[in-house]
Design a protein that fits this description.
alpha+beta, Ribosomal Protein S5, domain 2, lpxc deacetylase, domain 1, six-stranded mixed sheet, globular, binds zinc ion
Length: about 280
């Protein structure tokens, strides 16, 4: 990643089904001036309200990351945020005609591919990288042995430990130093995990209505129900989610270690990091 801020060369729109609502949504990515950061806009609402993608605007972390202000929201921002963090897009307005981003293929590849085809524009000002200055960790009292740690470091390095009682899935570990190259090659196309027993429960809650077998690693009693893109795809996707949620702080350097963590702990860590980042 270069030292200077970047935006897109030009605007583009993409359309797709939303994971939780099952509706078709159109999203338009619009280049922005330096120092404006990433902002989300509900272009289908009167007055087109806008919020910066900042930790204080996150209103929900149940299964996905949602920003909003109590009167409107945009759900499932994390995979687009991961693509922006991974590829180094600093300034962008994301207009969404609905309350959720399109899910694409369930990974960040849908977004990354469209951004790379459009091209990045290097801007004059230097990128403001946030450095983790002291060790910080969070845990989840409802999920034993789940931790998320952040340590100082000159690059962004993320490790993740995934554990499962399911014998086909087993335990998985993955780690990498995030650069635009490693992001595209190793992370962008990793999809989320869905257990068949969870899919029913999620639909009961009105979530995951748009999901199908292609947009997730689906696991049943007997093991994987579809083909994997990586043997450790689940651990890689967890790193993708962390990368996206961390981008609520802007570009970050440091070492992150996730152990059985999820979106809620990502946000807890991000909030703690606000006091320990420079
Ligand atoms: Zn995810």
């Amino acid at each position: 990643m270069g030292d200077r801020q970047q935006t897109l060369k030009q605007s583009f729109s993409i359309q797709g089904e939303a994971l939780h609502s099952g509706k078709m949504v159109t999203m338009t990515l619009i280049p922005q001036p330096e120092d404006t950061g990433i902002r989300f806009c509900r272009s289908d609402l009167p007055g087109k309200p806008v919020l910066p993608a900042r930790p204080e605007h996150v209103i929900d972390t149940n299964r996905c990351t949602t920003i909003g202000d109590g009167t409107w929201r945009v759900r499932t921002i994390e995979h687009l945020m991961a693509a922006l963090h991974g590829l180094g897009v600093d300034n962008l307005l994301v207009e969404v005609e609905g309350d959720e981003l399109p899910m694409g293929d369930g990974s960040a590849w849908f977004f990354a591919q469209a951004i790379l085809e459009t091209g990045l524009e290097t801007q004059a000002k230097p990128r403001r990288i946030r450095k983790i200055t002291a060790p910080v960790w969070v845990e989840n009292r409802n999920s034993p042995r789940s931790y998320l740690l952040a340590l100082p470091g000159d690059q962004l390095h993320i490790s993740y430990f995934f554990t499962s009682d399911n014998s086909s899935v087993g335990n998985q570990f993955y780690q990498l130093t995030v650069t635009p190259e490693t992001f595209q090659k190793e992370l962008a196309s990793a999809r989320t995990i869905a257990f068949t027993y969870e899919i029913e429960a999620l639909r009961w809650q009105g979530l995951a209505r748009g999901g199908n077998f292609d947009v997730a690693v689906v696991v049943g009693e007997e093991g994987y129900l579809n083909d994997l893109r990586f043997p450790d795809e689940i651990a890689r996707h967890k790193i993708l989610d962390i990368l996206g949620d961390l981008y609520l702080l802007g570009p970050v350097t440091g070492t992150i270690i996730g152990i059985r963590s999820g979106h809620k702990m990502d946000l807890d860590l991000v909030l703690r990091l606000m006091e320990n980042i420079r």
